[in-house]
Write a structure and sequence with these properties.
The longest helix is centred in the N-terminal third of the chain and has 33 residues, at 134-166. The chain contains 25 helices and no strands. By secondary structure, the protein is an all-alpha fold. The protein starts with a helix and ends in a 6-residue tail after the last helix.
């Protein structure tokens, strides 16, 4: 472990010399503007709570080492609230003038924030790669703590100057947070440093700690780019609201293509076992009371029904792109089966842009009246949204933890099929709204193929996977994945029913 600590000291020394800190300290930048790079941090900071709750933390700590790591996560998961507090004290809502759709674009689609979506997934992957070994997890956690200390040691000085000038205390950027970022995992000194890593642990610990520092260097590059490109020019990132380009018209679109597993030809035995469970769970989920409410509640208009529940699905729908792009998709294709998975992921990555178009058409910004900070608070801190975020974290871990194409195939099949009844029911409402309001709702209307290249039927390509034998262990793993996904969707549908009936968002 001494090698890890030496690496930490050297890489932290390099990080504190990053040019971003020159910008932060530069007298050429007005003091009042030096913390206005905060929007570029939003994805990382707000997701940091989930990283601590559902990735870094051990569900049932078995020893002192796991307990220490867990203790650190309880402190770190509080920081997103401090960030939101400072966001408002910096008057970023007023400066940005973003509505909810602008914040969703920034979080999930903007080119400037693409690296941060990847960073979030890379952080998650570390806790899968470390195999739950507390010594390896400590190595990359300790690297992350060193990076945090380097950042806040510099930035807190700027916050302190601002506090003296304005009388406003900045708890995230200031000394309050710095005092909780000592540069090491809390309560760890004297416990981990003298532990000896074996020949398996050492290279993995070194690689993950190095990866953590590499990510933070790239993150600082992004901080600097935003600071120079936007803050330095007093410019604001703006979502381009150009008309979407579709591959089909409403009259010929709308035929879902994701049901092919039900129509697929004979499968080898263990795949057939999975399909039986899959079809049973799909049928049961289709009977969820939420769908009956969508069909039968006569006191609420079709448009209002959609408006009442759709904010609950922001994370799932907008975040589905990153799940496919960074967790399920193979970085380098090594077989025909992996190519099938990647082509499928390529298509699924396009769907969240359709959702954002539907959001505009339903005038959700006007219905909700949310500012940027309201949107951040709802997406990442609303207690009911915890269910959706936890389940998305589970899907990420399933994808990253199972690299075989056959397992990722059934993961994708379950994820897609769990939405079939959802879209069959939202489509009815969407078509009514389209006729009444003269709008186009391609996402809720189940016209997802309009956003990606027209392809021939996928059944033949997928048979490349389901015609290959798998082991009984893989069959059982796939069945467990199917059950997990449908359990999660059932839980989320119950929340949607509750939210829809209670009119949580005060839709009028």
């Amino acid at each position: 472990m001494h090698e890890i600590m030496n690496l930490k000291r050297e890489r932290k020394r390099q990080l504190v010399n990053h040019r971003f800190y020159d910008w932060v300290r530069s007298d050429s930048v007005p003091l009042e503007e030096r913390l206005l790079f905060a929007p570029i941090m939003a994805i990382f900071v707000m997701n940091f709570r989930d990283a601590n709750k559902w990735f870094i933390r051990f569900p049932k700590p078995r020893n002192q080492f796991e307990e220490i790591i867990n203790g650190n996560t309880f402190e770190d998961e509080t920081h997103s609230r401090l960030f939101l507090e400072d966001w408002r004290k910096l008057h970023l809502d007023e400066k940005l003038e973003w509505r909810a759709s602008d914040m969703l674009w920034w979080l999930f689609l903007a080119e400037d924030t693409e690296p941060f979506r990847r960073f979030v997934m890379e952080f998650a992957r570390m806790t899968v790669v470390d195999d739950g070994d507390p010594f390896i997890r400590f190595a990359h956690s300790e690297a992350g703590e060193a990076c945090g200390n380097a950042f806040f040691d510099t930035v807190s000085k700027i916050a302190t100057e601002l506090e003296r000038k304005s009388g406003i205390k900045y708890r995230y950027f200031g000394t309050y947070h710095l005092s909780r970022e000592p540069g090491h995992v809390l309560q760890s000194p004297g416990i981990f440093e003298n532990q000896r890593l074996d020949s398996r642990q050492r290279p993995k610990a070194m690689a993950l700690a190095t990866k953590m520092f590499d990510i933070f260097v790239e993150m600082h590059d992004c901080f600097l780019h935003y600071a120079e490109s936007y803050v330095g020019h007093r410019a604001i990132p703006r979502r381009q609201r150009s008309a979407p380009v579709w591959n089909a018209t409403p009259e010929v679109a709308g035929v879902a293509t994701g049901h092919e597993v039900e129509r697929a030809g004979p499968m080898v035995p263990y795949h057939a076992d999975i399909r039986r469970v899959f079809l049973d769970r799909k049928e049961r989920t289709a009977e969820h009371p939420f769908y009956a409410w969508l069909r039968e509640a006569s006191s609420v208009s079709p448009k209002q029904k959609l408006q009442r529940f759709i904010p609950m699905w922001i994370g799932d729908i907008m975040g589905y792109r990153d799940l496919n792009k960074y967790a399920i998709r193979y970085p380098a294709v090594r077989s025909g089966q992996e190519a099938v998975i990647n082509e499928w992921c390529d298509d699924l990555e396009t769907h969240n842009s359709l959702f954002l178009n539907d959001w505009d058409e339903l005038k959700m910004d006007q219905v909700l009246g949310w500012t940027a900070s309201d949107t951040l608070k709802f997406c990442f801190l609303d207690p009911q949204m915890d269910v959706h975020r936890r389940n998305m974290c589970t899907f990420v871990k399933l994808a990253m933890g199972h690299e075989k194409p056959a397992l990722r195939f059934w993961l994708l099949e379950a994820l897609e099929a769990s939405g079939h009844a959802f879209f069959e029911n939202t489509k009815r409402l969407a078509l009514e709204v389209e006729r009444e309001a003269g709008v186009r709702l391609d996402y809720l209307g189940d016209r997802h193929d309009v956003a990606h290249p027209v392809r021939k039927g996928r059944t033949g390509a997928r048979a490349l996977i389901t015609s290959e034998p798998i082991t009984p262990a893989d069959r059982d793993t796939a069945i467990g994945m199917v059950e997990t996904i449908f359990d999660a969707v059932d839980e989320q549908l119950s929340l949607s029913l509750e939210v829809g009936q209670s009119n949580k968002f005060d839709v009028r």
